[in-house]
Amino acid sequence: MTAVAAPPEKKSFVEPGGIEAIPLDRRHGSPWQLLATWTAPNLEFATVFVGIIAVAFFGLGFWQAVGALALGNALGGISQGVLSSWGPRDGVAQMVLGRTAFGTRGNILPATLNTLMAGLGWFATNSVSGAFALSSLTTIPIWLSLLIIVVLEVAVAFVGHDLVQLFERYATIILGIIFLLATIFAIVSGSLSHGANGSPGGFSLGFGGFVVTVAAAFGYAAGWNPYATDYTRYLPVGASRLKTGLAAGIGDFVSCTVLMAAGAAAATVLDFGKGNPTELFTSDTVMPVVIGKLTLLAIFFGAIAANALNIYSGAMSFLAVGIKIPFRLRRAIVAVGFGVIGFFIALAASGDPKGTYENFLLVISYWIAPWLGVVLIDRYKRRGTRIASYLGDSARYTNWPGFIALVVGIVISVWLFSNQTLYTGIIAAPTEKFADGFVADYGIGDLTPLVGFVLAIVVYLALFPVFKPKVGTPMPAEGYEQPTHVDAASPV
C-alpha cells in the first residue's frame, strides 16, 4: 500500500498568529527593502507639520530650524538603524526583545506605553492629517473623511507583514515624487532668510526654541524605534547587519528631514496659527494648484502608509504584554480593535491639531529616550550571548535594573526638565519668559529626552551588579537560537 503524501499547507492571505519567533524556513527579503519601509511612512503631513511648528511656534528662522530638525532626525535615524539590525538574528518583534532589558513582567510597562502611543496615539494623529487632506480635496465632512481613511489603514494592517511591506514599497515611489515636487516649490516660495510669516530669522524665542525643536524632531524620527525589528524579523539570519541598519536609518533620516524642511519653508510665508494646516501648505502661495491637489492626495495616502505600520506594531506591542488571545488571527483581530478605538480618538483630536500634536511629539520622546537607553546598554551587556531562553512568555525572567532605570529616567527627567503646555519642569520653568500669555523665550528648552536617556543608562549600570540579572551563555557557532513560546497563546 502506497502512502499518500499530505497536501502542502495552504498559505494564508492574512498573516496568522501573533508575536511568535519567525522560523528559518519563513525568512525572506532584503535589507535594502527597509529604505522603502522607513521612507513611505514619513511621506505624510505629520512630518511636514514638525517643520511648520519649528518656525511658526518654536520661533526659529528657516536655517536654524533645518539645523535643529536634522540633528533630532539624525539621532532618531541612528537609533532606528541600530535596533533594526537586531531583527535578523533574533526573529522577534522589538517589544519582545525588551523582555531581556526589563524582564517578562517589567516589559509590560514599555509594551503598554507603545501600544497606546502606536496603536492609538500615532494612529489618531496621522489619521487626522489624512482626513483634513481628503476633506480639503473633496469637501467631504471631516468625520466621513476620517472614517474612509481608518477603514483603508486597518485593511492593510489586517492582512499583515507582507502587504505592509509591499504597500510601503510602491508608496515610496509615488508619494516620493509628489512630495519632492511639493518640497521644491515650498523652498522656492519660502522666505528662507526669515522666520514665521516673514518675521526676522533667528532665535526669536531664545536658543531654547532650538532645543525644543530637536526634541520634537527626535520624538518623531525615534517614534519608529519601538517598531524596528517588527519589520526585520523576517529577514534571513545571514542578512548583513550593516546593510540592515543603514537602510533603516537612512530611510528614516532623509524622508523626515526633507519633508520637515518643506514645512519650515512654508511657515516663513504663511500664518499657520489659523485655518486648516493642510490647506495652507498646499495653497497657491506655496505651490501651483495642480501640485497642491496632488500633494493633498499624497497626504491622504501617506497617512495610510504611516498608520499601516502603527496599527500593525501597536497590535504586536499589545500581544507582547502577555495577554492570551486564543485565535489564529489574533494579531489581525487586535489591529481591527485599534482601528475602531483610534477613530474616535482621532475625531476628538481633530478640533485642535496644532496643540495636540506639539504636546504628543514631546511626550513620545519623554518615554522613548530612557527606554532606548536601557535597551541599548542591556544589549551591550549581552553581546555575543544567548537570549532566546529569556524571551518566552513563560520564562518569568526578571531584570529589575532595567525596569527601575526606565521609571527613574522618565519620572525624574519629566519632573525637572519637561517644557510643554501640559507641564513645565521645576528646572525648566524659571528659565521661561512670557508676554501676553504666550512664550517669549523658551529658556533652556526641553532637555527631557537627553536627561532621560543618560539617567536611565547610569541607573542601569549602577544597579546591574547589585541585582545581577542572568546573562546567557555564549551564542552557538551558527549564531542563531530560536526563541519558543514567545506568544502567550502559542502552543510551544
Feature tags:
about 500 residues; mainly alpha; two-stranded antiparallel ribbon; 16 helices; 2 strands; about 60% helix
Poorly predicted sequence stretches spanning 5 or more consecutive residues: 1-9
Shape: globular
The total count of helices amounts to 16
Number of strands: 2
Structural class: mainly alpha
Order of helices and strands: HHHHHHHHHHHHHHHEEH
Helix content: 55-70%
Assembly state (oligomeric): single chain
Q: What does the average pLDDT come to?
A: 89
Strand order of the largest sheet: 1-2
- Rounded to the nearest angstrom, the radius of gyration is 22 Å
Distance between the termini: 35 Å
Q: How much of the residues is beta strand, in percent?
A: under 5%
Main beta-sheet strand count, sense and barrel state: 2 strands, antiparallel
